Structures are given as structure tokens and as C-alpha cells.
Amino acid sequence: MGENPFLSGNFGPIETEATVRDLSFQGEIPKDLAGRLLRIGPNPVAAGENHHWFAGNGLVHGLRLREGRAEWYRSRLVRDDQVCDFKGWPRTAGPRFREDSSGLANTNVVDVAGKTYAIVEGGGFPMELDYELETVHSSNFGGGLSGPFSAHPKRDPDNGELHAVGYFSGWDHLQHVVVSAEGEVVRTVDIPVAGRPMVHDCAITENYFIVFDFPVIYGAPEGGNGAGSYSWQEDHGSRVGLLPRQGAADEIIWCEVENCFVFHPLNAYEDSDGRVVLDVVRHPKMFASNLTGPGEGPPTLDRWILDPKGGASKESRISDRPQEFPRLDERLVGKPYRYGYCGASGTVGPFGGLLKHDLQTGETLHRDDGPSKQYQEPVFVPCSPDADEDDGWIMSYRHDAERNTAEVVILHAQDFLGTPLATIDLTVRVPFGFHGNWVADS
Ligand SMILES: [Fe+2]
Q: What distance, in Å, lies between the first and last C-alpha atoms of the chain?
């Protein structure tokens, strides 16, 4: 086996947590931005050569903006058991899903009812962090979680509820979990499924919670480890479940789609005929030949129209440019919307420029700042609470491969290809990772 690509270059871990104050920047930071741009990714403290990208210990990053200044950037390891043992730190207190749960949380970092959590799918409870990203304790939301949470809760913009899909390799079901805006678990419904599928994300519409069931199945292939215990099992088939939001598990409507794998939807909504429009980043396969991370052919942005009355699913392609990490103006989660923002694959790897899709005109803008400038997931922040869709800022951590350091770039979404409003020099490297969010100071 050659060098593991997920341990080298900007995928490779950093050894030292960083604190940088009063960062220098070009341009102007919008004064209305007061809060933290958070993101997280894997940063293994002790990886073997067949390390899976998804299995690395969480490293959370935060950039604090206020009054037009970049006050600080911090990176902190999420203190799971392996990190604490490796560093000689006391283990983190708090509830665990199972006795052998390690506390690993590496995939997303979110605000729930004013608290910051590092979250992960398939095995662990959230890890609560303080404002400056130090791990506080693990959390089951006050006792309400009965199983693993998800890295991709979807926030209903009308009531602030979080909808998530839980799963675990030892379960014969998925779980619809709803957390109230106050941070309490208010609904848990088990959804039986065959096999043990990896279910990374979900979607919501006005009336449905949308469940994915694709052929990445728990079952260790030769050489698999960590998340590599999941592999492509063609015969499982691919389907999407429409569960009435308040419905029982047996009310779910399954819609077959062509075999594929989806980590992330862009958004979903119901059209005037009551059909569900679901936009997804579609991979032709996943973990079929590459067991250390995604890499089975270019992912595309596709639109599926699903008929709750049992009609055939309609599938079409919105954009065939390789892309991932789809985001939108999250005031429109579950509702008709026009714009999507994605990371564009680069010429030499999965991280490159940024894409902006106008789903009304079909136009896609491709921001490409050259091969050495590699954007991570874009985050959209509206300029004001009642601003129009797309009237807001795109914020992204960008790797500068020439200087081997990271910057945070702030664009106006309506000047997507123009000079950034601000480019903030973090002075340190931020490894390629997964997801993040803007958390405004309340
Ligand atoms: Fe994800």
C-alpha cells in the first residue's frame, strides 16, 4: 500500500492546537458579523497506514469576528478518550451511548439552544464545547437521546426544531430524532431497515422527514477499519423514505431511485402537486474500491422528484461539475429556494473552487482562484434577518497551498466571482475537513 492520501498534504494532521489573536486581513470585514465561524474535521493523533479519513479525532476551528475585526482564531482537539490518553489529559466526563463509545466527534459543529456541540454520526453523543472551543463534557441533551446523534441535523426555520437521523451498526433500524429549539429531545421514532446502512444526512419538507437508504452497508471488507467497516453492497438497492413528520414508522413511503450514494442533500421542498423535490450531491458509488475515503467517480448535483402517491421517481442532472459540501440560505431549509453554494472539486483533489447554482435559470458560477487556493465548505450568512435570498455573505476557510497556511475568505454572494470583501490570514494550516457553521453571538 502506498502513502495514505488522507494522511498527507493538507489532509495530514497538525500537532499543536493554535491560538492566534488580532489577525491581519485585507479588505473590510462586515461590521454586522459578530460571532464565530466554526468548522471541524479529522485530525488523527495516532493513525495507522490504513487510516480512514472519517475516523480521525475531531479538531474544531473557530474564527471570532466582531466590529470589523478578526479577534481570534483557535483550533482545539475535541477531547475524546483516545485524544486524552494520547495527550495525558484526564478523560472527558458525561454520558456515553455505550460503555465502549470513545467520545469521538469530528464531523460538524453546531449551536443548539445557545450551546456549541461537536457532533458525529453512527456512534457517539454530542460533545459540548465552550465559547473558546474547549471540551466541556459529552451530552445526551439532558437524557433525551437514546442512541447516537447525527452530524447533520436540519433546523426547521419556522420553529427552530432540529431533525436528525440516528443509526448504529448494531441496530436493525434508523431513528428519527427531533430536538426542540430549547435543546430537548421531543420525538424519537425507530424506522426498521434491512442491512445496516450508513446514513450520513437527511432532509425535511413542510410535511416530511426524508430518510436515505443507500448501499453503503456495515460489514468489514478485507483491510477495512474505522469507517472503512462500511462498504458498497450493490444488491442493497437505493431508496428514499418520506416519513410524515409526526407519523409512525409504518407510515413511511419508500421511493426507489437508481443505485448511487448520497452523503448530502442540498435541500428539499414540496411542489404545488404535493411531490417532493429533493436536490442531492450524487456519487455513482461509495467505498467500492477505495476503503480509506470517498473516491469512486465524480459527484454531480442531481434533482429527484419523488411522488408520495407512489409514482415513479424522476431523476435529472442539475450540474455535472464534480462538487460536494452543498449549502444554502438556511432560512429556506425545506422550502422552495433558488440558490445553492457548493465546494468544487479541484484539479488535483476534492478541494478547489466554489460553485453557485441558480436553480431558476440553470446558471452555475465557478469561482476558481487558481490551483493553490483550495476552499473548504462554503457557509451562507444573510446580511440581515429579512434580507432576500442570496443577499448575504459566503464565508469559507481556504487553504493556500503555496504558503501552506489557511485564510478565511468573505464574499458577497451576489458578487460571487468578484474581489473578496475580506481575506483573513490565519497564519497556520487548517487541514481539509468536513463541516461548519456561522454562530452569531446572541
Ligand atoms: Fe457531511
A: 50
Give 83's Cβ-side CA count (13 Å radius): 24
Q: What sign for the dihedral angle of Cα 351, 262, 325, 10?
A: negative
User: Domain residue spans in the chain?
Assistant: 5-440
- Asked if residues 334 and 357 have their Cβ atoms less than 8 Å apart, the reply is no
CA of 401 to the centre of ligand 1 (A): 24
pLDDT in tens, 376-417: 999 999 999 999 999 999 999 999 999 999 999 999 999 999
Domain 5-440, what architecture? 7 Propeller (2.130)
What spacing in Å lies between the alpha carbon of 392 and ligand 1's midpoint? 23
pLDDT digit string, tens, across residues 14-58: 999 999 999 999 999 999 999 999 999 999 999 887 888 889 999
Nearest in space to 173 (alpha carbons), one of 159, 155, 194: 194
Q: How many A from CA of 15 to the centre of ligand 1? A: 24
Measure 151 CA to ligand 1 centroid, in angstroms: 7
pLDDT category at 144 given cuts 50, 70, 90 is very high
Distance 433 CA to ligand 1 centre (A): 10
- The C-alpha atoms of residue 113 and residue 256 are separated, in whole angstroms, by 36
Q: Give the residue from 335, 209, 212 showing the smallest Cα distance to 270.
A: 335
Distance CA 252, CA 32 (A): 43
390 touches 339 (CB < 8 A): yes
Cell of 75: 483550533
Q: Choose the weakest-confidence range: 7-11, 243-247, 302-306.
A: 7-11
